[in-house]
Write a structure and sequence with these properties.
136 residues, binds zinc ion
Length: 136
């Protein structure tokens, strides 16, 4: 949401996640205390944030505070699904790809070059923007 480079891993891929974090200098965000207790973490080679809350808004606040992030960094510039930078796309090009009501009411669209998902500034975007503003 904030535009930071972020990759999602499901629980079955710990070793691949840790290898990638080490290779690419990434910070691991997890609720899994077993990861926090690994030697790589306790020795300081791998930075891990143990997420404390069940609530997504509090989880985001913890990450923003822990890493000193700017919640207005580059909002909604990266695909929420696959982490690719979004590209602007002309309205005419999405005519058959978005619901008719959206096409009628929205003029600006972004497309993910990875998964081809189309983004626009609808009600979901407005709700997420309000949430980001509440952090600032
Ligand atoms: Zn995508």
């Amino acid at each position: 949401m904030m535009g930071y480079d972020a990759i999602f891993f499901d629980g079955a891929e710990d070793s691949r996640m840790i290898a990638m974090a080490l290779a690419e200098g990434r910070v691991v965000l997890t609720r899994d205390t077993r990861i926090v207790n690994r030697r790589l973490v306790t020795s300081g080679q791998l930075k891990v944030i143990l997420i404390e809350s069940d609530r997504p808004d509090l989880q985001m606040l913890q990450v923003i505070d822990s890493l000193g992030l700017d919640c207005r960094f580059k909002p909604f510039t990266v695909c929420l699904e696959c982490n690719q930078p979004l590209l602007a796309v002309a309205k005419e090009q999405v005519k058959d790809l978005v619901p008719p009501y959206v096409f009628k009411t929205q003029n600006q669209y972004m497309r993910c070059p990875g998964c081809h998902r189309i983004y626009w500034r609808g009600t979901h975007w407005q709700a997420m923007t309000r949430q980001l503003d509440s952090f600032g």
